[in-house]
User: What shape does this take?
Amino acid sequence: MERILLTKEDLKGTIYESHFENLKALTQKKVFNLEQLAKTICLILEVDFKDFIGKSRKRELVNARSIFSYIARNIDTYENGMFKNSFREIGEVMNRDHSTIVHLVSRAEHEKIYPDFRNELKEIINTVYGNEDELKLIA
Assistant: This one.
């Protein structure tokens, strides 16, 4: 699978343009550990990581958690690409129980039918992974 690297021009006019330098360093690798993935998504969505792992139920935080859970569950973060992350592993990053992660993933599955959520998810996956092949998760 060939990597497509994003340039500053690719992000021009998007909401991620101001984060180019930080994203450039984070997205050079295909392999993420879950905490790196969570922090990257927080950076993209302009959400404080402490709030992300905290107890607040504000909509933007719930959306960020849902997007993170969905991506972490469905995209392999291990180098050999053979393992899916367990709900327990994903929950440990956010200090949440596995049942909460099951709910967040199913919420993201349901929300994909809405164009705004779907486009946000698509842009995040493309920004983080820089590869159209990963966008099959959106379909």
About this structure: The longest helix spans residues 59-74. Helices lie at 8-11, 20-26, 34-45, 49-52, 59-74, 87-94, 98-111, 115-129. The CA atoms of residues 110 and 137 lie 13 Å apart. The mean pLDDT is 78.
